[in-house]
């Protein structure tokens, strides 16, 4: 791969990741389904309400017996919400009833408790008249058996989970998530939380890529780290390829002496070279053991920019999530950009809706990445933009 444009490299990534979009159904507990994507239309197996029930705490009556009010009726029974024998209202009486309890046969209206006066002798005065159907929740008045409750492709939110539980589903078929492994490389890397010796740094790319992937709807099957030793990297890659449909590597792809990713994968058919963008110039694509491998440079900003530019929307599409698109913003300050390379600068949206630069273009500036909320996209032909110009920005 000689230097190619972002579009050319994106097209190559699309091709190698095409199979990721084919997903299967995965049956999971409804309790775990938040944020997952429904695989198929889900139809209601029942009517809702499931049975005719009371909308109020009050008295179930035959509306004909309360056509003229006030009227005093004997209280023949009490019906609570919960398992009940089929109840029948004795003619000319009232049945005390709680919200959600089944309405007895022979009753067609509910008188709310607020409209009654109770007498010690077991009778109740209905203070105002009620007509048939008042405060009665009819079976199926919410939804009928067979109606689609949640369409295929919906990202399941609490409201969808609510209706699926209400009709009795304990499980739901969701779209399987793309399974991705992350492999970081570098003899200098150790886990955050451990003690550093001179020359070591914390591995932030592994955890960062995993977080980005999860946010894109992927299942991160492993986050592994290799030294710069080719045999070790090969072992780790073999392990990653066992369960992943996509492997993302970081580091070891540029022009140094110990570029383990490039050194191992190029002889296996990997395509390594330079993309005309900054940061994130050195890139690689390999199919290893049938598993596509995207190789990003190790600088933390380069890794993240590479993920966003080349992989994020592909992973999201496979996961069934909508793409994250760029928008247009107005530059708060002037910007210069080297010719011949697409620049992705860290920017921050201001309260006035304009975008300002955050720190410089250095791809090691990881704190500035945290302060930024967009990437400012400047095409390779542009070398200068005045304050007030329109630019394309990508949400981070
Ligand atoms: P490389 O692409 O391997 O040449 O690495 C470029 C720079 O990124 C070096 O300063 C590395 O120490 C740093 N780097 C590489 N991998 C990581 C990582 N996983 N976490 C943090 N920094 C890294
Ligand atoms: Mg390295």
TrEMBL record:
Keywords: Magnesium, Metal-binding, Molybdenum, Molybdenum cofactor biosynthesis, Transferase
Ranges of residues in domain MoaB/Mog: 181-317
Requisite cofactors: Mg(2+)
CDD domains named among the record's database cross-references: MoeA
SUPFAM superfamilies: MoeA C-terminal domain-like (SSF63867), MoeA N-terminal region -like (SSF63882), Molybdenum cofactor biosynthesis proteins (SSF53218)
Pathway(s) the chain acts in: Cofactor biosynthesis; molybdopterin biosynthesis
E.C. code: 2.10.1.1
Enzyme class: transferase
A Pfam family annotated for this UniProt entry: MoeA_C
Top-rank lineage group of the source organism: Bacteria
Annotated signal sequence range: none
Catalysed reactions, semicolon-separated: adenylyl-molybdopterin + molybdate = Mo-molybdopterin + AMP + H(+)
Keyword Metal-binding appears in the UniProt entry: yes
Membership in a protein family: Belongs to the MoeA family.
PANTHER family: GEPHYRIN, MOLYBDOPTERIN BIOSYNTHESIS PROTEIN
Record's function text: Catalyzes the insertion of molybdate into adenylated molybdopterin with the concomitant release of AMP.
Protein name: Molybdopterin molybdenumtransferase
Lineage per the UniProt record: Bacteria, Bacillati, Actinomycetota, Actinomycetes, Mycobacteriales
